[in-house]
Amino acid sequence: xxxxxxxxxxxxxxAVCGLTGCTGAGGAEGDGLRVAVTSYPLEYxxxxxxxxxxxxTNLTPPGGDSHGLxxxxxxxxxxxxxxxxxHLSGGMQPGVDDALAQQSPGHVVDAAGxxxxxxxxHFWLDPVRLAALGGDVANGLADADPDHAxxxxxxxxxxxxxxxxxxxxxxxxxxxxxxxxxxxxxxxFGYLADRYGLRTVGITGLDPAVEPTPTRLRRAAxxxxxxxxxxxxxxxxxxxxxxxxxxxxxxxxxxVLHPVEKVQEGETYxxxxxxxxxxxxxxxxCEG
Length: 288
Ligand SMILES: [Zn+2]
What we know:
There is one protein chain. By secondary structure, the chain is α/β, with parallel strands linked by helices. Helices cover 46% and strands 12% of the residues. It folds into two domains: 2-169, Rossmann fold; 178-283, Rossmann fold. It has helices at residues 7-12, 14-17, 23-26, 40-50, 73-81, 94-102, 127-144, 149-174, 190-196, 214-227, 241-250, 269-283, and strands at 2-3, 33-37, 54-58, 84-87, 107-110, 181-184, 199-202, 231-234, 253-256. The protein has a five-stranded parallel beta sheet, sandwiched between helices. β6, α9 and β7 form a beta-alpha-beta unit. The longest helix has 26 residues, at 149-174. The radius of gyration is 20 Å and the shape is globular. The structure holds zinc ion. The site of zinc ion (ZN) has 7 residues, from loops.
């Protein structure tokens, strides 16, 4: 199993690669299915389920923003050359949706069915929802590569087991926090809040690149004050200024909560989610 991050290609752009000329170098090499994924959480699941039988290309480079992933010629070429594409339709990456609508590869796994809060794509922050994606990916890989169908199904079962264990850690650690308010700069934690009985107050909205208006900030400050929350959580990768300013104004703490989108080398889904749980236990107002 290997990854071919597109960082170099994305930075170099079309001038170096031509329209499709560099896909041989940056795309899939080696054995197995060529699988294109559009964000880190989808890569994590595909890696766990596909194991040594897949070569994954993540179209969001390490540290990149998966919101609004641009359909560059390189991205489009990788999508079209893939044996299997794992993506999330419905507005987070409209450029990818368009590219797939124009020329769909043979096997496409769309995670959209797991994201049912209106306009909120961040389903992977609920480990139970992410566990369900494992079975869908196993089916997609098996369609393209029936010889290894049993292995894909078994790997999806193992992944489900580990994600449901993570869910149990969350459920028991956050049980004393039911009803507490989770204040987050990037409004990414709706599914997590739903799963563990938290209320959310968002500051910047669903897309971290969109700055909140002064009116939105004033409303958020009021909501936080009324809720009795004692921490404003902000995203490590994004500028913490808005969250910090709000926290300072209200005289409460700020802490990092990772939306598991802009992931650096060495960071993993389980590792980031356990760090998030520790931050929530410290920062939420819980009983006992
Ligand atoms: Zn996000």
